[in-house]
Amino acid sequence: MEVARNRADAELLESLRTGKNVDQAIRNLYKYHFDSLGWYVMNNNGSRQDAEDIFQDVVVTFIDLVQKNKFRGESSVKTFLFSLNRYAWLNELKRRGRALAREEKFERMQDRTTEDVSSVMAGRESSAGILQLVEQLGETCKKILLLFYYEEYSMKQILEHMHYENEQVVRNKKYKCIKQLEQMIEQNPTLKQTLKNLLHG
Amino acid sequence: MDNSTQNNDEFELAREAVRQYGLRKRVEEVHREMMSELKTPVRTMTPSKKVLRYSMSVAAGIILLVGAYMIYNFFTLSPDKVYASRYQAFEISTVRSNSTEDAIVKAFREKNYPEVVRIHSSGADSSISATFLAAMSNLELSNLNEAILQLEEVVGKNRNLEHPVFRDEAEYYLALSYIKNRDYDLAIPILEKIKDDPIHIYQEKVDAKLIRKIKMLKWR
Q1: Chosen from B27, B33, B35, B38 to mutate, greatest number of chain A CBs within 10 A
Q2: For chain A, what is the largest distance between any 2 Cα atoms, rounded to a whole number of angstroms?
Q3: Could you say which residues of chain B have pLDDT below 70?
Q4: Hey, are the CB atoms on A42 and B31 less than 8 Å from each other?
Q5: pLDDT digit string, tens, across residues B173-214
Q6: Which residues of B touch A48 (CB under 8 A)?
Q7: Are the C-beta atoms of A77 and A9 separated by less than 8 Å?
Q8: DSSP label at B40?
Q9: Mutating which of A29, A147, A182, A196 best tests the B interface, going by the most B Cβ atoms within 10 A?
Q10: Is A196 touching B (CB cutoff 8 A)?
Q11: Does A133 touch chain B (CB under 8 A)?
């Protein structure tokens, strides 16, 4: 059972799960956690830009985990974010071949009170490729799929946004778009594996 | 794996791709907004800010120490402490002598204070200087009330004299005696008079700090 450490955490998690005031919840994540998490990156061979990029990835990962009910709430949001941030930054340093002995030692010393983020982070490294894939769909397909599968709009609502003749036309267009995306994923085994990791990992 | 399951998996992966794309775009948008809001470097300080912060810390520390020192002084201040810090045994060198005075002066010079008090009490010498020496002896013998009465007498008798005798000395020791006796309201006007009188021989011994202390004692 999830235990929210405090009211602020509970409200944040509620917003992310229900989709109400998500933008404000994201703003609060930046407002209350960027400073300390960014400080960690900048004090471990990172630049300001590194700190920003890593934090953005951390926020995406965190929201995704919360929305998939994979954040068990065994630690506070702050502690969990810090673990994600540390994991992401050390991975980035490794990728750059600049991991220092001190940092590696730090990585090995997993804090037992925090959730083991390595399992939830596994396979997320190449998620940036997903952006490129969806971009390749073209503006119309991208918009229809986003409105339907991400914003969870009804066909009627999409019709108001897209100015198609009727809902059936939208439905047909959406079907074609998703099929096109399925084919593109099928043609890219690495990305397919990443998506599997994100979906089931 | 049959076709329908495979199709369903492909569909789920495609939907996940859209979800991931949507989420990342949404965060990107807020990220841009927040990064321009949080422009200031993360926990980095310019040297001038560091100096300012350090100076403020030092100033705050000093204020704290001064405050603590003042509070400590306020609560540890006592009339006996003030009296002891300002009291100095009176020296006899300036006393003129005659045959009767010689006995009381001799006894005082020898610090035979009970004898000084006895001679004065016997009525053999009721001069202002003898009364003053008796008062000083009573102070040495811790007969505070006797000393106060005699010093008040010396101060009173001196009021109309063209050439006062032990007037300044009597005023100073009377003020100190009042402090020891916790008669702060009586001590303060005398101390203020001494402080404001440039030719008073005890002016240097009475400063604003002493008067402030007596006022603090009065407030407590």
Answers
A1: B27
A2: 63
A3: 1-6, 40-46, 93-101
A4: no
A5: 999 999 999 999 999 999 999 999 999 999 999 999 999 999
A6: 41-42
A7: yes
A8: S
A9: A182
A10: yes
A11: yes
| B52 touches B59 (CB < 8 A) | no
pLDDT digit string, tens, across residues B128-141: 999 999 999 999 99
Closest-CA residue to A34 (of A59, A64, A5, A11): A59
Q: What is the ipTM of this complex?
A: 0.86
Q: What is the rounded distance in angstroms from the CA atom of residue A153 to the CA atom of residue A155?
A: 7
Spatial CB neighbours of B21, under 8 Å, sequence gap ≥ 6: A130, A131, A134, A142, A146, A150
Cα separation, B105 vs B90, in Å, equals 12
pLDDT (0 to 100) of residue A2:
47
Question: Residues 72..111 of A with a Cβ closer than 8 Å to B: which?
Answer: none
What sign has the CA pseudo-torsion B32, B34, B36, B38? Answer: negative
Q: Do B31 and A30 touch (CB under 8 A)?
A: yes
Give the pLDDT confidence score for residue A1 in this predicted structure.
Answer: 43
Q: What is the mean pLDDT of chain A?
A: 85
